[in-house]
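Notes from hallway chat w/ T.B., transcribed later so I don't forget. T.B. wanted the structure written out for a chain they're using in a teaching module, and asked if we could keep both sequence and structure tokens in one place. Agreed to drop them here.
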Amino acid sequence: GELFNLRSLTARETLADKVESFDNGTDDFLTKPFELEELCVRIRACVRRSAGRAHAMLVHKNIVLNPASRCVTLDGKSVDLPRREFALLHKLLENVGHVVSRDHLAQSIYGWEKDVSSNALEVHIHSIRKKLHADFILTVRGIGYTIEREDISSV
């Protein structure tokens, strides 16, 4: 099925239009004009719900990652993760129980940048493991990284 129904992006804004749209399977409703930031937040919420999580925060043992505030805490104390390390940890926590390929991780944190060193991903993983005592990030040789399913929950 569809992740979310793009027909919900519309200039129609009457209550009857909204009711009809939801009754026809729309997950969310956004009327034009809208701010791009609101659209992005709504898409993230749809993706989160499709993954079976009601809340954005990801919790693993004594680590909490809050995507909205871009904060990570360890035992309740803030841990400074640079943008790429945060994005990498976030991507791994969103894909618990699945191996995330090196290519997918690199694309998600570097985009289309050129001249990314071949070991940059390993450097970021090493830094995250060191800062968070994160031995739960497992290397799958020749493929990528994973976090085992039973080690994660959401709040």
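Follow-up for T.B.: Residues 1-8 have pLDDT under 50 and may be disordered. Might be a good example for the class.
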